[in-house]
Give the backbone structure.
Amino acid sequence: MLVGTGSDVGKSVLNAALCRIFQQDGYHPAPFKAQNMALNSYVTPNGLEIGRAQAVQAEAARIACETDMNPLLLKPNSEHTTQVVLNGKPIGNRSAYDYFRKEGREELRQAVCAAFDRLAAKYNPIVMEGAGSVSELNLRDTDLVNMPMARYADADVILVADIDRGGVFASCYGSVMLQSLEDRKRIKCIIVNKFRGDIRLFDDGRRMIEDLCGIPVLGVIPYYNNIYIDEEDSVALEQKHRQLAEGKINVAVVLLRHISNYTDFDTLERDPRVNLFYTNNTSDIQQADIVILPGTKATLDDLMELRRNGCAQAIQHAHREGKTVIGICGGYQMLGQTVNDPDGIEGSVTSLPGLGLLPIHTTMTAEKTTKQVTFMFEGQECQGYEIHQGVSDTEELILQTDHCIGTYIHGFLDNAAVINYLLKSNVSSQEPNVSLAEFKDHQYNLLADHVRKHMDISLLYQIMGGPKS
């Protein structure tokens, strides 16, 4: 199990790296995270919902994803509540206070443990992942995902620390020493992640951490910026607030408060013809060549905010000026005539006018649509998936009017046919196409090579194969 000194230390990406390494070495690994909190989710082949990170890790392991890899998914929404998805299906909304109470936790604990047992019966090794910080003392009694899960699985634990944010000595030492004696023995080594500069300069630091914590440093992993792995959390968006650029097709993704599945735009962002950036600056939206309204966990709340901050008017202005406007999932709903929520599925607002660019009316429903889809675009077969609440009064998978496109399909922009259609005015500068599957597989290999180079893999296998203390 990989646990962290805090959130966003790189556990998910390292999990993917280990899944690929074990697969390359002849094993049959699978990822597991008992509880995930993320708006970036994915649909399994049988139409159930899990965290995107576990789908990425399964891809790295070269296996199909399934709900047992992430049995409990929390999707924060508006008005201080979160949607609880258990074994791939929503079971309702809960406030944070209600969710983290001791009452009712055993039912969830049994469910995630049962999922682990089913997964462990089919795969070996299981590469587990904790959540946030491993030393949140106030949540220890209700924790389902960190050390209690490690104890249940009898897992060897690796502590991951992010040196880039500073305080690595204190965070490593504190994370180890704040554990119970039993759990402290379970933590077998430390990974220092996201190192910048000459790694030899940290040789003394490595020895100091080992002396302080009494366990070896398994590796010091350098920061990289030339390997592309889907990110789990919207923290990554902070690095994507770029500006308009000359000589490129400028694509503005409207930055929503409840943005979800922003990985929909990663393939387009990597296209050499494109400068893609996230913004709620009205001037940038109006000047962009293509404007994308992304998915959201709270359609009505974000629609209200778009009107308040002027982005709605900027999108309408861009459309009138002949710019291409695209809406994905919740963004598609917002581009329609009305969004209605008579049963209060999302909150207290029962109806709002949309931006009026597409001839649809949407009504929120309690039941969620989750499925993988195949569709035809420009004569080519394409793939994607749907995750949404609400139904619109059209049977079209993709609705096009003039220079506006709306669809419920996540992964719509991962298809070369779609991208080339949108960028066809610059098609002469197109580089040779590499399929998304080939591109991703190569990135997992690059990641595995990077981690192998800086991690003591033989020590890792020794820890995994040795007797538990």
Remarks:
- The chain has a mean pLDDT of 92.
- Residues 237-429 form a domain with the Rossmann fold fold (CATH 3.40.50.880).
- The chain has 16 helices and 24 strands.
